[in-house]
User: Fold this.
Amino acid sequence: MNSEKLTIRQMTLWFILYQLGSAFLVLPSNLASIAKQDAWISLLLVLAVQMLMIMIYAGIIKHLNGVPFEQYIQTLFGKWLGKLFLLLFTLMFPFLIMSLSLRDLGEYITTVIMPETPMEAIFVMMLGAVIYVVYCGVTTIGRAAEVLFFLVMALLVLGYLSLIPTAKVSNLLPVLEFGWKPIVHASLTTIAFPYIESVLFLYFTTQPDKWRNIVMKSSLFSGVLFMYVTLVVIAVLSQGVVSTLTFSSYFVVRTISFSDFFERFEVAVSVVWFIAIFFRLSLLMYVSVRGLAAVFQLENYRTLLIPLGLISYVIAGVLWPNTAVLLTSYRIWPYYTMIFGIICPILIWTAGQIKRSAAS
Assistant:
């Protein structure tokens, strides 16, 4: 189904939910472990870099002239080289991220909520929902985003505003105690996850100015939300505690308690995350099947949904055998994603510029 059938509002809300995805629960901990109480400042640097990258992505959208991204790649690099590029890009970026996100979901549920539940059962249930909604098409996903987005925002506002009375400004001080080096280092994590992944939004073609505004709005909205949650989490728990927790955004709402009536709000945070990661997986699945359908010259990408889902199920189960492997991959991941989110777009934009100059 063509992305043109998505409205601007639907695209914006879907992109925001995508960026919240896995990052919402783990981002404060990842940032605080490096930048300490200055973690929120890292997000300012991230948004500045993201705005620059959006300019490059928007330049590629101008070159597309309404042509689907996967078709443009084959036109730009030639049939065979273009297909090879698409194959490697799809398998090594959106499809890999989808498998990683699925594993994140399994780790979260089996660690925090239902420790006796087999991880494979969680994979099956989520993949079933994702395959079904992508099969229905992007219009269905866009409408679902319109309905569920405001539920997500309502739960977030209710949960994290309730933490303000217990926040301590002293936990955020002193500012810049360790200088700019850890702040810049921490920003690399967030640039890679989730903002560099904005390159995948190129699969949703529309008018260049509209596309640029959609991605900018979604990035700024999610960035401000990340910044607020990070500030609140550190102010309530302190950076020392946050940096030792895997899911600090979940843990902090467990401290909410008003007169033994308003408490146990972590269930609502889990609902928020389930919704966000559902839309994240849906976009990754949609982009993956579209890219592979172009490589194998399939008229309908839907035929790849179940095979790709089964492969993702297997990969998610064997991605990392222990925590040590996971921590090592976290250190490598930012540099790995820069290949696809920065180097590849610059290469595509440069090749497009050269081709346009030669044509004129």
